[in-house]
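User: Please fill in residues for this 172-position structure.
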């Protein structure tokens, strides 16, 4: 029986993230919405991750995005929960609420419902923030993953978020 219930590609990438960030001497935090803790689960699956992984915030509702990560109601109402502005604010909030050097935020529509013509199921937005980086250096991207079921969208989103946590990564 396997030691983990998580898909092996997710665990393998999480291990790369932990090793690379340990080598770089930096700690990480994540702010998750549509992935519901999947990225945090993958990172904590790795033995010794506690010296790199500092915090995971699962803010599924807009109220919690606002209350825990200080995403402004104006941003949520103007751009919506699934937007670059919201993901960026979530990433900044994760940095402010932790001591991490880098954070990644994920917000999206995993389905099967909730999509629209402008933001169909599979739409996921990512943002990465780094402590001390210029505030105008926004690293964010909106992706449209194949709608291969809720679990499939969440897995694709988690893999993308982990890639962004690699020290030499840029938005894929």
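Assistant: Residues filled in for all 172 positions:
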């Amino acid at each position: 029986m396997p030691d983990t219930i998580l898909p092996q590609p997710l665990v393998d990438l999480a291990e790369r993230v932990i090793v690379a960030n340990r080598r770089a001497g930096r700690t990480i935090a994540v702010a998750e919405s549509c992935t519901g803790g999947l990225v945090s689960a993958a990172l904590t699956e790795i033995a010794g991750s506690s010296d790199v992984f500092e915090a995971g915030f699962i803010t599924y509702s807009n109220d919690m995005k606002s209350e825990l990560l200080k995403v402004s109601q104006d941003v949520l109402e103007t751009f919506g929960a699934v937007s670059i502005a919201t993901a960026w604010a979530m990433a900044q909030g994760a940095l402010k609420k932790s001591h991490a050097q880098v954070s990644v935020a994920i917000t999206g529509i995993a389905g099967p419902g909730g999509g629209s013509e402008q933001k169909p199921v599979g739409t996921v937005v990512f943002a990465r923030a780094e402590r001390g980086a210029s505030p105008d250096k926004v690293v964010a991207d909106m992706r449209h993953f194949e709608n291969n079921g809720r679990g499939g969208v969440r897995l694709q989103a988690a893999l993308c978020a982990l890639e962004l946590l690699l020290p030499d990564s840029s938005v894929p």
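For context: The CA atoms of residues 74 and 80 lie 9 Å apart.
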